[in-house]
Amino acid sequence: MTAVAAPAPGRAGALTFVRRNPTLTAGVVLLVLIGLVAVLAPWLAPHPEDAGTATHPFQVLRPPSHSHPFGTDLVGRDLLTRVMYGARLSLRIVIEVLLLAGLIGIPLGLVAAYAGGAVDQVIMRITDVFLAFPALLLSLAISFVLTPSVGNMTIAIAVTWWPWYTRLVRGEAASVITRPYVESAQTLGVSHTRVLFRHVLPNSMTPVIVQMSLDAGGILLTAASISFLGLGAQDPTPEWGLMVSQGAQYFSTQWWFVTFAGLAILLTAIAFNLIGDGVRELLDPRRVITR
Amino acid sequence: MLEVRDLVVRYGPVVAVDGVSLSVPKGPAGFGLVGESGSGKTTIGRAIVKLVEPESGSIELDGLDVLGARGGDLKRYRKGVQIIFQDPDSTLDPRMRVRGAITEVLRAHGAVPRAGEAARVTELLEQVGLQADHADRLPHQLSGGQRQRVSIARALAVEPELLVLDEPTSALDVTVQARVLELIARLREERSLAYLLISHNLAVVEQLCEQVAVLYLGRIVEQGAAALVLSQPAHPYSRALRAAVPELSEQLPRPATTRADPPDPASPPSGCPFHPRCPLAIDRCRQEEPQLREVAGRMAACHRAEDAVRGQSEASDQRS
Amino acid sequence: MKLEVRDLGVWFADRRVVEVDSLELDRGETLGLVGETGSGKSMTAYAIAGLAPGMGARVEGSVQLDGRELTTLSQGAWRDIRGRRIAMIFQAPISSLNPVFRTGDVFTRALQLHGASKAEARTRAAEAMRSVSLSPDLLRRYPHQLSGGQAQRIAIAQAIALRAEVLIADEPTSALDVTVQAEILEQLQKLRTEEGIATLFISHDLAVVSGLCDRVAIMRDGRIVERGPVRETLTSPQHAYTRELLAAVPRLGEAGSAHA
Q: How far is the C-alpha of B115 from the C-alpha of B106, rounded, in Å?
């Protein structure tokens, strides 16, 4: 480990990284802050009990004040607390949808590319069927059928999301499979599963990772939209979309009810989109290579 | 040991390999396949390691029918026959360290118990002239020659009987090439290896092989002892190929064919596939496809092979 | 015509990849520039042809064509020199042609750019094609309809038609089959004897250089380690690296280190 050409990691390396990737850094910083709020909500929130079923009939729709910085909602719950707890929910939904969609979509794409022929045809035609419907509409329909709840909404979004990853992985894997190192592993007698998961998969993941980070913001907004329409989270769940939906009708008189939840959605979506753009800049090989 | 009979491989309309038969004896032995692009030499190698499916013909290893092999037989065959590819830059997974690349192969065949893996990796690396600490490098941290050595170490990990060497040094610098060729020559003796060496470089084949087959448009046009075929080729194509090899002298190589560009492999010429470029072509060559037959101590597929050999000895008489 | 290179340095960021003290090329002469991967031979050629700055390199030192300094020329001035006075051919002949144009269109446009009328351009192109033993009909084809050998001969024909004085050939036969290589080498030889073109021939292949070139320069790590007339340099090499390169060339007719 003496003469390594790469710049030594450490403060200088980190600084260079930040300077070269301002978008990614901004997004990560923002998301880490939101994540901290989510994780620490039980300790940070002024009225943790308000995240649940508590009601305070004598403090209904109070404007922002010292004890309730974001004001209260129509059953008197502290909105700051609910927005904080909402961060937990929103991040969880995004992560779960990405995991679920990835777990369905990526292996199917790999198998389609590796097996080819009829298997490929069947898998790709199924993705076509899913992609034929507008994603939001399909999610709404599924949420409606599955009785509205956060869990069912997550499933509904994942169901419309996985085909994109299948297509992406299949295209990338199909080209990775023809690379000599894959052929080499095959002729060396390495098993199909290992070739698929140790060679093809890691080398096909870049576009999926880019796509997933670009998608995170979209999933957040989709979840908020479904809840807004009443087909996702149900009261008293502190879901931002639901809060916006409840607060919208009071906007002209009690502006704080809708505003803070809306801002939380906006800020988180911005964080995800910054990260998405940053990751794409960092990983997309089509970007001009600078040395 | 390896018997290939009447192998035919087709890519769409192109017959890449058209009825090739050859046999590689038990090691230590080298069999060379030479020819230019489109001759089908690489396709033959790929068919032998089952990367392409032949349309017809048979491949046998020690009596085992390779094309029909399944399950355990196939696994044994995969172990017995290994291929080294041309481009060492892309035959190693860019994300896998050398150690992983080699242990993966050891595990696939249960070659050594897990406790012995590290020692075996070191041993293999040393056999191909690398050091133990190369095991922890990623492919991009190695030079082209080192990468090719790692590929060879991987192939040796399963103790193969036969190596298919597909232009193993064409992507390397000459000084690196020379050392990799030395390595192949050494391993061949140490391990009694047999190999099929696919190359466009006649000198490399001459150095490493006893037998050679010259391919043109998917067919063997000449076959025999490498020393004889490469020094006194009988087929006009082999002769053109031989004459075109640049040598360290003030003479430029002679373009010996009447038209340099090979015909379209999708519609090969009638009769002898070489006749449009052949300086000796007669009417018979245009109509009747010549079969391999014995001519002056080797096999050649040419109606005029005798004349070609005679012309050559006259020429060398004049020179001396 | 005389091309003179003095103290040529090519830098990528803070790394110097070429450090050539001097190179000279006279009319009708072929100079072989030989080296392995990373020796800087190609970058030297690109720097001489004015292409290095476009690749992000910084060039220092001097390159003079008949006393005119080339390193300080503007891109516009270069367009006049490149093609007309200095032509270049590359390793991958097909991909160095624009795939969407017929080869003839590019060919005649280049001639018109340098002052020929359309009719004159056509006749000169056809003439040049015949002098490299190609049918002028090939000018109607698109690059992908050509073989590698044909495309390389068309590139040489362009140099002839433009009456280039210097040809910079970067591994022009390395991607070709040996029988085709032999033909291209013959063409390059003819170019020198019949047109008096001076050629800078970049190659990794000492055998090819030995037959084609008058003088040779051996490069390693960006520097010329040995230079001289081809015959002397290759029969009694002075530098250890030249000897190593020579020893590594596989030779026919010295068979059998393996099975001897």
A: 12
Smallest Cα distance from A291 to chain C, Å: 8
Evaluate whether C101 touches C153 at the Cβ level (below 8 Å). Answer: no
Residue C88 touches chain B, beta carbons under 8 Å: no
8 A C-beta contact, residue B210 and residue C259: yes
Q: Do residues C169 and C200 make contact, with C-beta atoms less than 8 angstroms apart?
A: yes
Q: Tokens representing A185?
A: 């592993």
Indicate the CATH number for domain A88-232+255-282.
Answer: 1.10.3720.10
Q: Is the ipTM beyond the 0.90 threshold? A: no
Contact list, C212 vs chain B (CB under 8 Å):
252
Interface test with A, best of B89, B93, B143, B151 (most A CBs within 10 A): B93
Interface test with B, best of C204, C234, C252, C254 (most B CBs within 10 A): C252
Question: Helix or strand or coil: residue A25?
Answer: helix
What domains can be seen in chain B, in order of their start residue? 2-213 (3.40.50.300), 233-319 (no CATH)
Helices (H), chain B: 41-48, 71-80, 98-108, 117-127, 144-156, 174-191, 202-208, 226-231, 236-244, 283-287, 305-319
Cα–Cα distance measured from residue C159 to residue C211, given in angstroms and rounded to the nearest whole number: 22
Determine how many CB atoms are found less than 10 A away from the CB of residue C19. Answer: 19
Tens digits of per-residue pLDDT, B102-124?
999 999 888 789 999 999 999 99
| Minimum Cα–Cα distance from B190: chain C residue | C258
The answer to whether the Cβ–Cβ distance between B36 and C177 falls below 8 Å is: yes
Q: What is the pLDDT of residues C133-152, one digit of tens each?
A: 888 889 999 988 888 888 88
Neighbours of B, requiring at least 3 CB pairs below 8 Å, are: A, C
Provide the residue ranges of all domains of chain A, joining segments of one domain with +: 88-232+255-282
- The C-alpha atoms of residue C166 and residue C32 are separated, in whole angstroms, by 13
What are the tens digits of pLDDT across the range A33-80?
Answer: 999 999 999 999 898 888 888 888 888 888 898 888 898 988 889 999
C207 and B248 in contact by Cβ < 8 A? yes
Nearest CA in chain A to C12: A291
Distance from CA of A18 to the nearest CA of C (A): 21
- CA triplet C6, C165, B244: central angle to 5 degrees? 100
* Model confidence pLDDT, tens digit, residues C173-215: 988 888 888 888 988 998 888 889 999 999 999 999 999 999 9
Q: How confident is the model at residue C83 (pLDDT cuts 50, 70, 90)?
A: confident
> Rounded to two decimals, what is the model's pTM?
0.82
C243 in reach of chain B (CB within 8 A) = no
Using pLDDT thresholds of 50, 70 and 90, give the confidence band for residue A278.
Answer: confident
Instruction: Report the DSSP beta bridge partners of residue C198.
Output: C166
Q: How far is the alpha carbon of C11 from chain B, nearest alpha carbon, in Å?
A: 23
- Are C51 and C25 within 8 A, CB to CB? no
Of B81, B91, B104, Cβ closest to residue A190: B104
Nearest CA in chain B to A183: B51
Kindly report the CA angle at B224 between B46 and B268, in degrees rounded to 5?
55
Contact at CB, C177 and B204, closer than 8 angstroms: no
With beta carbons less than 8 A apart as the criterion, state whether A200 and A113 touch: yes
For residues C188 and C201, give the distance between their C-alpha atoms in angstroms, rounded to a whole number: 10
